[in-house]
Amino acid sequence: MRHEFLGDSYDAVKRLWSQLLGSWATVYAHPRFIPLDLRTAYTRLTMIEMLPDKPRGAFSILNDPDTGITMNAQPSSCTTHVSIEQIAYQCRSSGARCVITFDQSFKRSKAEGDNATQRHVKLRALTEHDIRCFYYASHATFLFASVSDNYMVEAMSLLVRGGIPQRRIELLK
User: Fold this and answer.
1) Structural domain of residue 56, as residue ranges?
2) Which among 6, 11, 95, 146 counts the fewest CB atoms within 10 Å?
3) pLDDT tens-digit series, residues 117-134
């Protein structure tokens, strides 16, 4: 999250996740991606607090990198991207019901395919790590991931009941 992007329309979608999922599993932002001097404003705008060391109760994690998900390995301190392996690790080790990741990291090369094809590749890569996942595909694209089939079904259901059209939910084909 960069200073110049605070308040863009993507933040409204993040606030929506907090509202739709909050009673099921409180959404916390991973602090790795939010600069210290932005955290108060970020929380006020999105209604998402920073992930505590020991969250209480059911919770979800929001990864909010500057760009999104990469297929390449990344150091754990990288703030522009998060890797498939890091998301899989969070799903398995954090105790979160769901890991939500902002993703605008799509290559424009025809060789890589269109955005839908690239999302499909990322979904497949996560399932190879035994992670269940789906995308919310819109102008603000987010990947939802979990170790549990039930949690993914519940998360999708909450989004659809909250008014998200089913056509915006992309599953692995």
Assistant:
1) 3-170
2) 95
3) 889 999 999 999 999 999
